[in-house]
Design goal:
Blueprint: H1 19-23, E1 29-31, E2 37-39
Antiparallel strand pairs: 1-2
Length: 52
């Protein structure tokens, strides 16, 4: 069973959805064609820049 939770971006309701991709200072977030968020967890260095 896949334990990862899928987050879906509603591009129509959230006009600033592109900020999600910019939140990671090293570019590990990417909005996919199906509007889910891909996160390259293996490369994450836990800098917490995405929270700030």
């Amino acid at each position: 069973m896949d334990s990862t939770k899928k987050f879906v971006v509603d591009k129509e309701k959230d006009v600033e959805w592109e900020l999600i991709e910019e939140a990671c200072p090293i570019g590990l977030f990417e909005i996919q064609e199906d509007n889910t968020i891909a996160w390259d967890r293996d490369k994450c260095m836990t800098c917490l820049g995405c929270l700030g």
